[in-house]
Amino acid sequence: MIDWLAANAPLLRNISVLALLGYSVQLALRAGVFSFATVGFYAIGGYVTANLLKAGWNWVAVMALVIVVGFVFALVISPVLNRLRHLFLAMATLAFTLFIQSLALSWATFTGGAQGMFGVRRVLPQGAMIAIVVVVVLIVWLTQRGVLGRATSALRHDELLAASLGVNVSRQQTMAFAASSGVGALAGFVQVSTTGVFGPDDISFSTVVTSLTVLVVGGAIIWAGPLVGAILVGTLPLYLVKAGNLSLIIQAVVVLAIVVYQPEGLVGIVKYLFSIIRKPFRKKPRETTAGAPAS
Amino acid sequence: MLQYLVNGLSLGAIYALFSLGLSISWAGLNILNLAHGTVFMVGALTAWLLSEQLPGVPFLLVLVIAMVICGLIGLAMELVVFRQIRRRTSDGNQQTLTTVIATVATSSLLIAIAEQFTGGQPQGLSQDLFVVSGYTVFGIRITNIQIAIIVIAAVLSFAVAWFIKRGRQGQALRALSVDRDMAKLVGVSADRLSALTMFGAGAMAGLAGVLLAVQINAVEAHMGEALLFKAFAIIIIAGVGSIGATVAAAVALALVETFVAAYWVSDLRDVVVFALIILFLLVRPQGISSKGWQRA
Prior knowledge:
The complex is a heterodimer.
Chain A: H1 2-7, H2 9-29, H3 38-54, H4 59-81, H5 86-106, H6 108-111, H7 126-143, H8 146-157, H9 159-164, H10 169-195, H11 205-218, H12 225-239, H13 247-261, H14 265-278
Chain B: H1 2-29, H2 36-53, H3 59-88, H4 92-118, E1 123-124, E2 134-137, E3 140-143, H5 144-165, H6 168-178, H7 180-185, H8 190-216, E4 218-219, H9 223-238, H10 243-263, H11 269-283
Helix pairs in contact in B: 1-5, 1-8, 1-9, 1-10, 2-3, 2-4, 2-8, 2-9, 3-4, 3-8, 5-6, 6-8, 9-10, 9-11, 10-11
């Protein structure tokens, strides 16, 4: 087990970062917030981590600070986003991400410009990295149950209805957005503190594509979705190496097909298969005579 | 000073050609097409491929072929992706979101294909395709491609505005934007009109792609992404679906950018653009056009 973990360190690291990115998008999405800001916060988390680790900070402190920075930054811009819905929100958050990308290129003293940051201490132990992912998955799972889970689910389907049921729409969505941003920044922290490098290539438009891919391949709303998606997106390229240059095209076609024809993702497919298998064994509902008088 | 005005104007003309398609497909069909920048890139790529494979090919032919190819990509997106999603999901929210994600997936597919051709490197456009020559008028240098860009954009903007306002199909499109089902009831062929809109939007993006590629003399697989950011700003400033305001905002934004780069710090261009986005979202989220949130 330990050997396997050590041998597959790069793969695990990839999967962890992908999963965190996927969960960041999901956290906002399931509360009905179309946010593309994840990669922007990923960039903020990454660059802050790189600078602080270079300045000799302890990684635990850096991690805590990065999450807080993500949270606070999200709360600062949320008044603007709160006024927007649906496509406007998607566009504004994507504009935010594109702006951060452009800023990363031009603000060279903080970000290293086009070359990016390199030679950062790789301080995060593998165990801690896995623990971070597990904790995030647990939080997502727990908040998908109970009162909070029902409230977010209602928000996603119909804001007006949710409001009439006593859900504080703007507060819930702001919190969802803040959580999403915190996890996004955390993904940046994990990426930098395990690879030691971070640059404009890490936060390009293709990262936006990847984070959405992770989400839709696994399943956009189900809690296990991003984890399944991350494992698939992380390992698939290893098997597609034979296809060479075509692997990117194959990947894109697969994703497109899933989005159009199977919007619930792989977890959705598995659930569907289970429901087919279970059908013959399910107890048939009894005849309606059960409660009726005998004669 | 006047020199920058000319440069800004030609940049604004390209912004306008690009943003119009994005704005109309959003207004009419409720599709935020994040692959629009990639379709733009395909236009530029087509020009590059044609000029490499067939030296001496007439520029006008290249323009037409690029427009047709990009139009067909738009059409294919409507037929293979958007229409299927519309059929499968009835929930409006879910449908909008799935469509946005699908456009992202489409864009990654097109970029992956484009990189097969460019090898992931920026490519220079052959000089034979369009011989750029400059004129000096009252001390301002203006090139023939700049004149062509400005004239084409002006003519097309008027054509599109007329089409949306007066044309029969344009009226139908406006009806579609208000209520798709209702428009169908009164006899609008929603499917055919969606296909037409996506074709037109794609063709205009392709046209802008060729023109910009000739002007900056470069083609690159990711060249559409920076433009997407500018188009977002333009749509936020103008309001979705209003043609005149979109063109005005495109020109204004390009001028602001040119002057910031010229008289202030060039790196601050995008900061200024983003500040404008935030300002408009805070003060006037419906855009400068008086129609407010109304679409098209």
